Structures are given as structure tokens and as C-alpha cells.
Amino acid sequence: MKKQWWHDKTAYQIYPKSFYDSNGDGIGDISGIISKLDYLKDLGVDIIWLSPVYQSPLADQGYDISDYYKIDPRFGTMEDMEELIRQAKERDMYILMDLVVNHCSDEHEWFQKACQDPDGKYGNFFYIKDRNESGDLPCNWRSYFGGPVWDELPGHPDKQYLHVFHKKQPDLNWENPEVREEVYKNIRWWLEKGLGGFRIDAIINIKKKLPFSDYPSDREDGLSDIGNMLLGAEGIGEFLGEMQREAFAPYQAFTVGEVFNLKENQLTEFIGDGGYFSTMFDFEPTLFGKSGKGWHEARTELTPEEYKSCIFHSQKKIGDAGMISNILENHDEPRGVSHYIRRSDRCDASKKLLAGVYYMLKGIPFIYQGQEIGMENMVFSSFSQIDDVESINQYKVAQDAGYDEDEALKIVSAFSRDNARTPMQWNASRNAGFTDGTPWLKVNPNYSEINVEEQEKREDSILNFYRKLAAVRKDPAYKETLVYGSMEPYLKEEKNLIAYFRKGEKTLLVLANFQKKPRCVSLPGGCSRILLDNLEDCRQMELPGAKVQLRGYEYMLLEL
Ligand code: ISL
Ligand code: CA
Asked: Which of 60, 98, 201, 225 is catalytic?
């Protein structure tokens, strides 16, 4: 693997609307982010990805952009954004924006013009089809947020347009070179401003299998999961390669792809040397136990064995092909500690253990806001507390599948994207210190126990453990091993133990006793140093001999 500037970095995702509100309107903003840069620097963060802050009607919380060159006034101004980039740079940090170019907003000028004149230049920026006499849709694909991907083109009852997400997110026609040029122009414009790069949204969807055709239906609605179409769509590489050459490469931009449904053997093409992206997320644990049927059929609270098999499998698959990025959660997923640790075992120790396991894997660690203090899923007591479009759809999907309202609410609660979108918990004062006003989304009531201020003060807090993880990864003595060393499982068959080596200049061993019961583990050789322990100040610990005794949920990082 050719070494790159981003390989040894630690990244952090901010969901701006819920991070920190500087002016009391209940909505987090860019000034709020600027005021927390030192906090992030202290956490060992080098790269900050902002979920969208562009001008948007916020139908999908900013993933529906109506002007790619403007900042939404609710988040601040262009000057704020420039100030953020400048202040980050001063601290040796990089800012990433979200690149949402599979679709734009139906309020974007391009779509408005397409509605005015579907046969003109902007009609070809989208996928617009005439309605035929029988009223059949051009194809039976199901949009990600429910219902057909086709909707009537406003003002044109005889025409329909394609949207694989919400109907306020019309898909851009990437087959049209003018669209692609507009996208690259925008990317270069932002990189010129000194942006570090982008997180690339839902990118696999830009290549459609054409001409439009039906796939076998997989639910009673007669529609077919988009994944079926994506399997047959060939040639995305031409678009991505072009974007890389025309827009990213000249700036050495860091890019992280949100890539689902990747075909086998495409890994090197995507993230190998000279690949389309610098890296992409590993979604194997995220996707485990989910099906196209809906959240009612998805697994919650994965067992340690299931989590282990996901991470071991993907680490092996990736090997040295490229640099992956590892996550426990993001703005679309439940909180990692709620998803991967069973309720009865959720505590500081188990949360730190989970952090230590994923952070030391090969790849770039991404921390999602609040993860570093062990924020948990929300308990939703009524459907009216849910804001997210996907949750609203899944509530209906569960009821269509025969669940009653209470059951449907439970199902949606486990997966709702709002779990991760509740405001960041800064302190124990009103609204968790997120805002002086009324927060746009209810604060998780557990903020009086789980908050940054409390954890700042406590040496053994989750927050301080995250700082220690970052410090080890940055330590010149271990950096080469942790960034480029191989990852090899150890005692894989031992139930509720997650253990693996990182082998490079040094040999390191991660041991995680993922259960309440203590256990004894034999070491493969002598241990020369304990680098981390989640239950103890490791500097005061005695070096283990041939065996190490682990308490319930104890985590150790050893140098052999
Ligand atoms: O393909 C999926 C899972 O297999 C979908 O979950 C989909 O790719 C994913 O929802 C894409 O998410 C991103 O784009 C959406 C936006 O709502 C999400 O917040 C964003 O992360 C549309 O822009
Ligand atoms: Ca605000």
C-alpha cells in the first residue's frame, strides 16, 4: 500500500443540527462547531466530517440540497464555514463536507427549470419519463424510504421523475456529461476554499441499470428492492474514475465513500492505490441481520460472536487491498453501544471494551458525535417523538407486516435514525447544554448521567479512554504497527472473547473479555508492556506471565 497523509488519522463525524447551538434557536450550527474545536483536538481528532450544511429544505435533514454553493442560514453563513476551515487548519485539522450528488432537492434550480421545460437542457439533468396509456410505471423499483421511485413531475400529469430516496430528492442523471461537469465544478470550488475532502453519500446509486425494467417483487406492494437493480448496473467506474481524476486528485483530497452493495472484487478498484476513493466505510457489522424486508425482521443486540465474525471477516477480506474506515455508529444507525452490547451488560466497562476493539482494527477510526461518551439509544414513548423520514416509513412497513402500533413503535425505536440524532450531551444543565432555546429534537433524558462535563472530570471515564486510544495510535512507537501492521485473529473459537494481533514493527495483542464472567487467557509469548486496560491504570499493573486473568468486560492492549 502506498503511504498517504490520511492513513494515520482519526476522524470524527458531526451531525451539525444536533452538535452545539450557539444562538439559542434550538438548531446546532457552524459557530457552535468552531467553539468545540479544542474539545475535538483533545480527543485526538484530525479529520472532521460534517453532515450536510448546504442550503436545503431539510426534508431529509440536509441530504436534499437546493444550492451546493450556499450554507443554509440555519447552520450559519459562508463566512462561518470559511472560519471553521481556517480555525481547523490552525489546529492541524481537516474539514470534510458531505457530497450528496446522487440526487438534489426538488427545490434546486435545476429541478425547478426541469419542471418548467422538461424537454429543455435541465430536463436531461434528471430521469423524466412519459406516463404510458396503461399507467404502468417505467419500472417497479422501491424507493429507500418506501413506495415507488416514480412520482408525477410537478405541473406535468403526463410525466414522472425518478427518486430512489424521498420524493423531494430527485435523482441526477449521471449519464449526462453536463451533470457530471457541474458536480466536479462544485467539488473543485470547495477544495479551493481549503476543504480537506468529502464523505461521498449513497454513491453506488448513481449508476442505474438502463433501460428501466422490472425485477421480481419482494413484498406485497409488488415492488423490488433497489439492491436488485444495482446488482445488474455495470460501469459506475467510468463515472467515479472521472470524478477522481477531474476533481479529487488535483487537490489530494481525502474522500470516504458511503458504499453499499459493492460487487465482489471491486475493493481494489474503489480504495486500492489510485482507487476512486481514499477509503470507504466498513458496513459489515451494520448490515448484519438486516434484510430487504424491513426493520421488523432485523436483529438487535448482536451477540459478541456475531460482532466478532463480522469484523474478522471484513478485516480478512480487505487485508492489504486498501485502507478501510471503521465505525460503531453514524447518523443513520442506532447507537453502537445499544446495538452491540446487551442491555443488562451496558456499562462504562463494556462501552470502553467495544471502543477498544474497533479502534485498534486496521483502518481509520471514525467516531460519531456522542460515541466518545457512550451515548445510548433514545427511548421513544410515542410515535410523535420521531422526526426521521425513514422511521416514518418503517413504522408503516411494520404495520403492513402485521404488527400493531405498540409493536411497530418498539421496532422503529431500535433502529430509528433519530437515536443518533438526539442532541449532543455536553453537561447536566437544561437541554444537556446543547441549546438555551428549545431543541429541535428531544434530548435523551439520560443526559444528567451521560455528559461530557462529568466525564471530563473523571479520570476513568469513557471519554478519557477514547483519548487514550487516540494517544496510543499516535504514539510514534506504535503508529506504524497500528496503521500498517497486519491484523490476525487469536483464539477465534473462544466464545465471548475478541482477541487479535496487530503485527508490524511491533507485535501487539488486543484481548477483550466480552462477558460478565472472568476468564483466563493463555498468552502466545511473553508480554513486555501493558499499553491499555479499561479497568485499571495500566502503569500500575504487574506484567502477566504465560497466562492473563481477565475480569468481566476487561479489555487489554498488550505489547508482546
Ligand atoms: O443502501 C442502503 C442500505 O443497504 C441505504 O441505507 C442507503 O444507502 C443509505 O440510507 C444512504 O444514506 C445516505 O443517503 C441518504 C440519507 O438519508 C442518509 O442520511 C445518508 O447517510 C440520502 O441522501
Ligand atoms: Ca443555532
From this structure: 201
